Amino acid sequence: MQSLKQKIKKTTLFSDEDKIAILVAVDGYSASDVKALEKIVDEFDQAHTRAVTDYKKAVYGVLEDIVVKQKSEDAPRMQGATDQIKQGIRSIFD
Amino acid sequence: MSENAPSNPQFVGQADARKSEVPVTDEFTLFPEQQQVVDVMEKAGAKLETLELDGREKAAGELKKLQGKELVDAGLKQMGHGVWQSVKSRFFWGVGGALVGAVSGGVYGSIVGQSDTDRDASLNRRVKEYADMKTVMTDEVRELYRRQGVTIDRIFKGMDLGAVAGSYVGFETSGVHYNKKIAVKNNLPPAKWYDWIIGNGVFGLTEIASNKSNGIASSVGLVLLQYVFNPITVGGMRNVATGLWQMKKG
Fold first, then answer.
1. d(Cα B56, Cα B83) in Å, to the nearest integer?
2. Is the N end or the C end of chain A the one with fewer CB atoms within 10 Å?
3. How far apart are CA B67 and CA B26, in angstroms?
4. How far apart are CA B40 and CA A58, in angstroms?
């Protein structure tokens, strides 16, 4: 049960309001509903993580490629720029 | 006017008598590296959005089968939530490109470099151009606004209010004497220009969400505020937009 509650707190599947309602009620759920809910959250979180990973891979790949292709005098500026972008993406998704 | 305006973001408000040596680009022209990044962000973002919606749709179907009312409600909300996630995603991906386009051309400078008299009319036009250009206002968003009884004009009016309010509350980059050519010449990112654009957009939505905007339905503005302009998203978008701007050469 504690593991399910932790997952509910962390998942992006539910809004904060929904999380509160579910966390309040979850102790009264049947065993089958608890199991089913945990499976639903796990599956969504895994799909979400995969999707975000693919996104980052695509974008970071382009960013790194851009840095590699820079002339030496432009490389530091471009590295700083791409680091900034990566930081922004991390703060949105992580 | 100062003849020695330092190339320091703290002094972006000072005009400079020297002529610009850097050609002033079309305000929506991106440099190749910027375009590369924007393109991949939009393409990968569209995929992410689709996968996110698929995941939510599947979870919604499963949740509705469970017994707890709050679970059923959460399931029922998922598709509605999914719609807003879609709005948020498109807004985000679109904003990434639109903001870069705006900054690389100095839309900000071209707006605040004008007199107060011209600024409001110009601002409406500029905001509409940049909003229509990219996916900021997709057909879906327009439809959602229409259903809520909020016309696009009123949204822009809200953003206009935001711009005016921004200048009064002293956003760092709202100096009315700022010169577009100065920023380009000195390779200055208008200090916190993205705060201005994002902040004024947020203020505009806040106006829509409040009773000040002729009593227009507030739910749309509030949802967008919640899902789009939350502090983490805005902060992250600032970093992304800053990095994209810094890729500009010149």
1. 10
2. C
3. 58
4. 7
Q: B73 or B78: whose pLDDT is higher?
A: B73
Bridge-partner residues for B2, per DSSP? Answer: B16
- A–B: how many Cβ contacts below 8 A? 137
Select from B59, B71, B236 the Cβ nearest to the Cβ of A89: B236
pLDDT in tens, B12-45: 332 333 333 333 333 345 678 877 887 787 778 7
Contact B56 A44 (CB under 8 A): yes
Task: Tell me the residues of chain B between 149 and 178 that have a Cβ less than 8 Å away from chain A.
Answer: none
**CA A53 to CA A23: how far, in whole Å?**
28
The pTM assigned to this predicted structure is 0.55
| B187 backbone φψ class: left, alpha, beta (φ>0; ψ -120 to 50) | left
Task: Give the integer Cα–Cα distance in Å for B202 and B221.
Answer: 9
Q: Is A71 exposed, middle or buried (0-12, 13-18, 19+ CB in 10 A)?
A: exposed
Contact B100, B63 (CB under 8 A): no
Q: A51 and B55: CB-CB below 8 Å?
A: yes
Complex ipTM: 0.88
CA dihedral sign, ordered B190, B192, B198, B201: negative
